[in-house]
């Protein structure tokens, strides 16, 4: 879903897609950029303490501790996710949207998205939809793989 034609390059080859603006990969890139531009800043310090490359998780930790650059990066990505959710709501009028993935754990990112999605949607569509977190959380990919394997074994 293209959000900003002048935005960063997306893996699909276009510019400014939701993936390029609001994904974990994008936040990982922003965490790394913040750490390089502010080597004494909180993002860089947390990454050094964790002995890891700066990433979205570290960005979230820094934001929780009040780092302005981290807060801005997460909120900007959340605004884009919210706009993407609004587009889905307006286009499909779904009863429910299930959000999964690790970024849903970032309260700032996820709440920013939720605070934008419904208010910007068509009123009736916004009233009709529920936006929920995936019930299986981080176990969803493993459960899906296990079900596929079980089904494949049952077919033999």
User: In terms of per-residue confidence, which ranges show pLDDT below 50 for 5 or more consecutive residues?
Assistant: none
| Overall structural domain count | 1
What would you report as the Rg, rounded to the nearest angstrom?
18 Å
Strand order of the largest sheet: 1-2
Based on secondary structure, the structural category is mainly alpha
Spatial shape: globular
Describe the protein's architecture and organization.
- This protein has one domain (18-155): Nucleotidyltransferase, domain 5 (2-Layer Sandwich).
- Strands 1-2 form a two-stranded parallel ribbon.
- The mean pLDDT is 94.
- 63% of the residues lie in helices and 5% in strands.
- It has helices spanning 18-22, 24-37, 42-50, 56-64, 68-92, 107-120, 123-128, 140-155, and strands spanning 96-99, 130-133.
- It has 156 residues and is mainly alpha-helical.
- The longest helix is centred in the middle third of the chain and has 25 residues, at 68-92.
- The protein contains eight helices and two strands; from the N terminus they run αααααβααβα.
């Amino acid at each position: 879903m293209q959000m900003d034609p002048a935005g960063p390059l997306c893996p699909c080859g276009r510019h400014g897609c939701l993936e390029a603006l609001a994904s974990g990969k994008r936040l990982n890139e922003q965490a790394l950029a913040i750490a390089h531009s502010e080597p004494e800043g909180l993002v860089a310090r947390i990454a050094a303490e964790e002995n890891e490359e700066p990433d979205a998780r570290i960005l979230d930790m820094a934001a929780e501790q009040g780092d302005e650059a981290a807060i801005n990066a997460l909120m900007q990505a959340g605004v884009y996710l919210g706009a993407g959710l609004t587009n889905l709501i307006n286009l499909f009028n779904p009863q429910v949207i299930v959000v999964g993935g690790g970024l849903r754990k970032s309260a700032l990112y996820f709440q920013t998205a939720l605070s934008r999605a419904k208010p910007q949607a068509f009123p009736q569509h916004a009233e009709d939809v529920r936006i929920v977190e995936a019930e299986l959380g981080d176990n969803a990919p493993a459960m899906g793989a296990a079900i596929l394997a079980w089904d494949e074994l049952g077919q033999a």
